[in-house]
Structure formats: structure tokens, C-alpha cells
Amino acid sequence: MPGKYDKLQQQFLCCYPVKKMAWSTVKLPLNWEDQQELIAATCGHPMNKRYPVRRSYLEAFLKQLMHLLRDQEDVHDDIYSSLCGPMGDNPGSTGTSSSYGYKHYLLEPGVHITLRESKSFVSEGTTGLCTWEAALALADYLLQHRDLVVGKNIVELGAGAGLVGILLKLPALELKTGQVLLTDGSEPCVQLMRENIALNFVDKPSEERPQAEQLNWDAVNEFPWHSHAETDLLLAADVIYDDSQFDALLRALDYLYTRRGSRLETLLASTVRNMDTLHKFMTQLGLNGYKVTPCANVSACASHFCRDHTAAVQIISIRR
Ligand SMILES: C[S@@+](CC[C@H](N)C(=O)[O-])C[C@H]1O[C@@H](n2cnc3c(N)ncnc32)[C@H](O)[C@@H]1O
């Protein structure tokens, strides 16, 4: 049965910006039972108890909630005790515990992805230790166009924290993909992806899990491709932001298309921060003999994720 605070729950568990949360679903004054229900749906959720969101997010959420309840006489003890909850520690993992926390992406009832992510957009020399809007948009697009992935061996470039590849192999979604290989040039990203794969595929044999390997676009020809299935679909989200990387990415594409030719399709999702950068890359693709087709817009309303929508995400298909 849908709960009163489902939207807030979905947003809290994936650390959606506190100020933009669905606070209008909280009808004031909030009686004792409702306060209890709201806390149970968010801070007290079993997933948060096991793998907590980062401390600073929890505090910001509770601060906003207490601000909302500022004119009420009774504030439930559970709200205060939530502040004493567990921290996002995971000894032996990448990064320091205070800079990391968990996010739980609820996709549909009973289906979720849990990722350990950095709170910083840039840390340990990479931008990939947290999930970006373009990855959420690409995941959405694939969920809405399942035929694109059925039976395909898929490689993701610059996969970061691993959301898209983990989604593609999630048993509950039954996407029926072939092998899924997540790659990134950053060693900490590969380590984090492996942690995140282990979190989401407990007790699953390796053939039912995505794999994660280090692959720098500069060294694509040194990668042991013979140990992996031939690639049918290449994915990349938010990798077009730094034009100093264009040549390396184009060389990687060239290497992979030379192996697979017209049997290979690439789907590239880019947050349009700077239209010039994206156009520049698309022009380069054209000059290198690729056919670039913009895909249908990923609908904001039909999103499986809590997306911020502050910037548009464009998805293009690349063929040669
Ligand atoms: C903005 S992050 C996007 C991460 C993830 N795709 C997402 O959208 O959440 C860009 C990613 O590309 C990776 N990357 C950048 N340059 C690279 C290169 N030359 N070779 C391999 N990976 C690279 C970074 O390490 C980082 O993980």
C-alpha cells in the first residue's frame, strides 16, 4: 500500500537536495503518529539503518524537518534520536568515512540500488566517486528502451560509482543483458565500483554480476579485450566536459569501432553545461566518420529516479 511519505522517502534515501524535497506532502500540524511514520519512512528506514546516508545530509534533513515543526509543541523523540543514529562508516573501504555515505535509489516497489558515494564532486583526483545526473538520465532511458540492452554485451566507459552497469544486471529488473563490463580510468573509481557491485549482488555468482576493470581511454589497446565478450553496446555518461580528453576518447572509440564496425552502437549521455563543448565533440565525431543521432528526450516526469533537472541531459546514439 502506498505510504503518505513515499516521495520523501525516495528522496531522503538517495540524498536528494533537502531544500527541493516534497515537503508539501507534510500536512501540518503533524500529529504524533504522523511524525513517527515520517521518521520511520526516512531516517528509520531499515536500509538507512544498515547503510546510512552521510551524516551531513541526515543533519540537514532533520534541521529542515524541525524548522517545519517549529510552531508545534510536541516534537517526537524519534526525531531527536535519529541524530544519534549510525554513521556512514565502512572500515576498509575507499576514502575516509566522513566524506562518504550511502545512497539508495528506489526504482520501483521492492527494487533498489545501494551505492557508496563520495559527498564531493571531485575527490581523489576524479569526478567519478559520486553519481551524476547524466547517469540517472541514461539509466532512465535504458529502462524505457529495454530492447536496446536485451542480449547485448555492454561496456561502460568512465562508469564512476557504477550505477548504470549495476542497474543493467539487477535481477529484479530482468533486463536480460549479456556481459556487462564497467570501466573507468581512475583506480579509486574501480575500487568503489567493485564495492558497490558486491553490495548489490550478495550471493550472486560472478556470471550474474557486472564486472569492473580499470581502462584509461589512452590505453584502450592495452586492455585484455580477449578475456571479455565482443562489445555490442558502449555506454558513457557525463564524460564530455573536458575537451582535453576528447582526443583520448575519440581514439578509444576508433579502436572499438575498428574491432566491431556497424555491430557497435554507443549511447552517450551528457549534461548540457556548456553547449559549445558538446557541439565541439559532436563535430569531431562527424569529422571522424561517425553518424550521430540525438535520441528522444528522457522525460522528466517518467523518471525512475529523483532527478534534479537543473540542467538538461542530452542522449545521443553514435554509429559508424
Ligand atoms: C563526471 S564523471 C561521470 C561518472 C559516471 N559516468 C556518472 O555519470 O555518474 C567522469 C568519469 O570519467 C572518468 N574519466 C575521465 N577521463 C578518463 C579517461 N581518460 N579514461 C577513463 N576514464 C576517464 C572519470 O574517472 C570519471 O569517473
From TrEMBL:
Residues 7-83 form the FAM86 N-terminal domain. Signal peptide: none annotated. InterPro entries: FAM86_N, Methyltransf_16, SAM-dependent_MTases_sf. GO terms for cellular component: protein-containing complex. GO terms for molecular function: transferase activity. Keywords: Transferase. Belongs to the class I-like SAM-binding methyltransferase superfamily. EEF2KMT family. This is Protein-lysine N-methyltransferase EEF2KMT. It comes from Drosophila suzukii. The gene is LOC108015196.
